[in-house]
Amino acid sequence: MSLTTMTTLHNGVQMPWVGLGVYKMEEGSGEVKDAVLSALDVGYRSIDTASFYENEEGVGAALAETSIPREELFVTTKVWNDEQGYQETLDAFERSMDKLGLDYLDLYLIHWPVPGKYKESWRALEKLYQDGKVKAIGVSNFMEHHLDDLLLEANITPMVNQVEFHPQLNLPTLRQYCQNKHIQLEAWSPLARGNYFEDETIQELAATYNKTPAQIILRWDYQHHVVTIPKSTKKHRQQENADIFDFALTTEEMARLDNLNENKRLGPHPDEFDYDA
């Protein structure tokens, strides 16, 4: 088990269980390029960016420099809220592809469920998928009711739903919903920015397994069958975040971590997001 360990999406495409997230990594300083290159050197093959992050060009520069074959990489980007709509999404995709320097994408996501727009955006993603420009399509920050609404008219069920997910927000009903629909759940901010590394339960489990709090949380994600994309610009942290495949939490320990749930979000609730901002 390693960074090349994969989940199989409902269309047969394979996606690494652990990838690198690049939110808030800067492009101009070379930070994002260096972080992606170091992650690839560690063994990461999945990179997650978005047009909103304004660092797709830096990710693309790293991908152009690496000697790793394209077919071994799994690249995700997302269409932002002010780019949504049918033609708007198709245009946004082309802008992203130009910046990334790629001729196909592995996963394209709708970043947030913009009211009145996300169904048209999904229609555009279906076209990109059917045209072979994207290997898999999905959504981000969609709750059950958004997915129910989307599926009323969708021809293709999303392969992935990327949401905020960590022990203080473990979304049991959404997890079950996505499992029932064969939608792969993916966690953004899986470490909750380190906000509760000092939690007594997490500290105790870290001591038991001689692991860090981050490794305990990422292992918990993996055992819940949730893909995860921790962000780190430092190579030793990237290595640490990847080192979760040599131990397993017991059923009781998983339950103890589940019990940390407080429905506590770092980001906005999708129904309370300011879509007009």
Note the main attributes of this structure.
single chain; 277 residues; alpha/beta; TIM Barrel; two-stranded antiparallel ribbon; 10 strands; Aldo/keto reductase; AKR; NADP_OxRdtase_dom; NAD(P)_OxRdtase_dom_sf
CATH superfamily caption: NADP-dependent oxidoreductase domain
Written as H for each helix and E for each strand, in order along the chain, the element string is EEEHEHEHEHEHEHEHHEHH
Query: Uncertain segments of ≥5 residues (pLDDT<50)?
Result: none
Average pLDDT number: 96
Structural class by helix and strand composition: alpha/beta
Number of helices: 10
- Rough shape? globular
What is the radius of gyration?
Answer: 18 Å
- Under the CATH scheme, the architecture is Alpha-Beta Barrel
How many independent structural domains? 1
The level-1 CATH class: Alpha Beta
CATH topology: TIM Barrel
> What level of helicity do the residues show?
25-40%
- Quote the beta fraction: 15-25%
Strands of the widest sheet, in order across it, are 3-4-5-6-7-8-9-10
Query: How would you sum up the major sheet?
Result: 8 strands, parallel
How far the N terminus sits from the C terminus, by CA atoms, comes to 43 Å
Pfam family, one: Aldo_ket_red
Organism: Pontibacillus salicampi
Protein name: Aldo/keto reductase
InterPro entries: AKR, Aldo/ket_reductase_CS, NAD(P)_OxRdtase_dom_sf, NADP_OxRdtase_dom
Give a description of the structure.
This protein is α/β, with parallel strands linked by helices and 277 residues long. Helix content is 38%, strand content 15%. The protein contains ten helices and ten strands. The chain has helices spanning 31-42, 56-65, 86-100, 118-130, 144-151, 172-181, 200-209, 213-223, 235-242, 251-258; strands at residues 6-8, 14-16, 20-21, 46-48, 74-79, 105-110, 134-140, 160-164, 184-188, 227-228. The strands form two sheets. It has an eight-stranded parallel sheet. Strands 1-2 form a two-stranded antiparallel ribbon. α2 (56-65) crosses α3 (86-100). The radius of gyration is 18 Å and the shape is globular. 45% of the residues are buried.
